[in-house]
Here is the input.
Amino acid sequence: MFKLSVSYAKSRPVTAPLPLCGDFSKAIREAKELGFQAIEIHGRETEFDAAFISEAKKIMASEDMHIAALVSGRLYNETLISIADPVEQKRLWAVARLKEYIDAAAELDTDVVLGWIRGRISAELPASLYFEGLDKSMKELDEYALEKGVKLLLEVINRYEVDVFKTAEETLGYIRKNGLKSTYIHLDTFHMNIEETDMIAAIETAGDRLGYVHAADNTRLYPGSGRLDFERILGKLKDVGYEGFVNVECFPVPDGHTAAKRAAAFLKKYI
Here is the structure.
């Protein structure tokens, strides 16, 4: 059976869909009180140093909580350097930084989300050159993650934010084509609502390569506030044998605590 988690960051940009923020230990306790079993951490690789890992392990043990995933989005947002960068030195730098995420994830018994860090195809970076760099990076990172016992969660994102891996089928095809063994599909109900013609079929397509799920309603507010059929969505997750985390990543509206509380109460009805 899958478990509930919620997104967190030490500091939260105004536009970020992160319900919890602030002090880590307080956020862990808040998440637990609201009914979650884990917390997803958005941050830079430099934040996951030895001191943080030691503190996090103690808090997790004392609260019987888990870390659902480490999210690498800020690595790209703050540097605009991707693992498909045509400048080899920059591409290798991004790969090295992601290995730091993987190292931290191995210590914390969790996985790593790869979203915007894949970069974009553009006039300066045509598809052929883009995939040349991306393929090299993904194969190296996949092998490294496999050695560390960490899953790479390749997020399926909508067309307004990325230009590759917009559907479960496309993402699964890439994973298979490149023989990636430790890379899994990461679905997000908000993005699926935009890109998938059939969200239930997309979950079936992902099947046993489904490694992670983000939950938000069609407006990216908390699940249960909009029109998505979460009873069917979660039912299909059960049907395909998904046993990972369903993580609430939604806007902190009307505020983060209330959004997380309402999401947990709603989703628990179907778990």
